[in-house]
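Hey team,

Filing this mostly as a record. A colleague (T.K.) asked me to run one chain through the structure pipeline before their review meeting, and I want the input and output archived in the tracker in case anyone asks later how it was produced. No errors, nothing strange. Just documentation.

Input sequence:
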Amino acid sequence: MLFLLNDVDRNMIHNIITEIESEYHIQFTKDSSKLLSFYLELMMERNQRGFYINKHIPSFGDEYHFAQDILRYICQYSVIKPNEKEINALGYIIKNMLHYTLLVSNDRETIAIQVLTRKLIEYVSNDLRIDLTRDYQLYENLSNHLNSIYHESITETAENPVLQDIRSTQKTVIKAVNNNIGIVREFFQRPLSEIDIMYIVIHFCAAIERYKTTKINYNVILVCNAGIGTSQLIQAKLVNYFHVNVVGIISSYEIDSLHENSADLLISVIPIYDAPIEFINITPHLTEDDYILIGNKITELHLHNHMPVNSHTSEVSEIVVMDTIRPILINDVPEKADALYENVKKAIHRYFNRIQPENEIDNTSPFLHHLLTPEFIVFDVECKDWKEAIRKSAQPLLKFGYIENRYVASMIHGVEEYGPYIEIAPGLAIPHAGLNDGSYKTGMSMLRLSTPIPFGVEELDPVQYVVTLSSINQKNHLRALFHLLSLWQNENFLKELNATDSTTEANKIIEKFEYTLSDY
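Output structure:
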């Protein structure tokens, strides 16, 4: 049977190539783009007939990852399922037969901008009183956007109709971004245009909308002395924006009859000063500030792992389920308990987070615990200065062929030339070099110093942990870096990490806390 591609398929291939060019900041030459499209058309027709490449053709580097993403996208929009040999073959063709140019230079600023992005999100979140630091989509999109602005590959000069609406409706967000954009200007060493800033605001507005629609099934009681019509209007707004369950509407004099299990949160449109459960005061008109206040309170409940009162078993957290199952496995099948627990844990995590099985996950975006395995963690090493700390931290990556010696030399030279830019949080340094300075595989290695040493940033010194990053492009390490920066804000994580002397246990601690992160 003959399978012929239609115009929809050809448009899909064209759009996928365009998407890859945008993601990796590359541009195929006109002839190479045509050849790539033609090859993909032939490959799809061949795969639809059931014929796949069965010879392994070695492929590595950026071109392998281009091929991996191209075929991943094709799988999303078609019924074919290319195998690893198809990926390698396509990667080989891109590397040896096609031509493309880099639109953004692969330099050390890329990772520095990704760290800067996390700081900007944290500062804006603090101003808005909304925790957007857990939104990986915001982090990924905004870091790519800032990277493009820095390298001037984006020149937004035309007035977008959306911008005028943002200016009139998102004044609080605009103010929060403007209050904190100074760290970006300082890094860029140049001013940002008003339109540049407005496009940054748009990224935050999109994140806030995702935040509003995140499903949180907390039970709420509304305190309102107005008529039933006003009460129902406020109730409708609350349910529409926050997915809360309004389990009751009461007058202020009924507050004393409540008990701690009546609801998770009391929301009052009249001033109250005491109640048996958590409460906040808002205005009857539900202003933008009220929405931010409510969202912040719900996030606070969520971050403190507060379980909804009178919740059904289907609403319990994955950690509670896993902690309940583990003793049963140890008691009933002790010799297989650890292996079974790992399989059950992954299945439960997939259920709660609606993610694909591990063998179907895009492994170009590994989690932190995938990179910081026991072989890449070293504890309690003595170093005389920051140079020796960088060298010793990089040893596992050197040992397993992730980087060359010149990558280590480049990391040290970078600090000597640009200052201690690798010190990014209290007690934490993340050495890294340019993307073309001798790295072959995405990876991380973590060194804990027996005696913390200064790296040069007074408010962050001394450094106890040195996490060396090996990166081959702007994308593959992003999720792991995002999780590392997020976990470093978690006091319980740091307490457990500091307390262990086992690298195996450290990897499990990272995995446990990483699964508590919500990437939306």
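Quick notes for T.K.: Residues 153-157, 311-316, 353-362 have pLDDT under 50 and may be disordered. The two ends are 43 Å apart (CA to CA).
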